[in-house]
Amino acid sequence: MEWLIPVLIVVALVLVIGIYLWATYNSLVTLNVRVDEAWSDITVQLKRRADLIPNLIEAVKGYAAHEKSVFESVTQARAETLQAQGPAEAGAAENHMQQALKSIFAVAEAYPQLQASQNFLQLQSELVDTEDKIQASRRFYNGGVRELNTKIKVFPNTLFVRGLGFHERDFFEVTEPAAIAEPPRVQF
């Protein structure tokens, strides 16, 4: 009978550890899926913006066809955005896109007829809406990454979660905060 108490203590301890591991694993899977979903939301919004860019270029081109370098930089930034793999590359592409959009809107400011064009105004409105959605998706993604990374780094999780295939994720950050400090001005 004396051996029963130590056995029950060991069984209870194994049960508590098992429940902890099960709960931790499930919460990490949930956070991982949430981060993947949030990244998917970002890529959808980046694609939506990239789809608007050719229309915006065409609208501006009709009034300022001689601004070839501006159109080339916007086209290049669009290509970088579409080819970006992961948050680090997307952050760098985001810097280039913001600079390119600023330059195209600077060109547009010189043409009052363009700013009065219904098509251009609609494209500007859609672009502003898309930029807002990108920022919201980015905040959601970075929040999920923060939760996942914290869960991975806390003790005792840090001892075993990497062995289960979980790893820290990168935040979606821009490499040049000054590039997005002031969003492209859209004047109606």
TrEMBL record:
InterPro entries: LemA-like_dom_sf, MamQ_LemA
Annotated membrane topology: Single-pass membrane protein
Residue spans crossing the bilayer: 7-25
Keywords: Membrane, Transmembrane, Transmembrane helix
Compartments (UniProt record): Membrane
Recorded family membership: Belongs to the LemA family.
PANTHER family: PROTEIN LEMA (PTHR34478)
Protein name: LemA family protein
Record organism: Agromyces lapidis
Lineage of the organism: Bacteria, Bacillati, Actinomycetota, Actinomycetes, Micrococcales
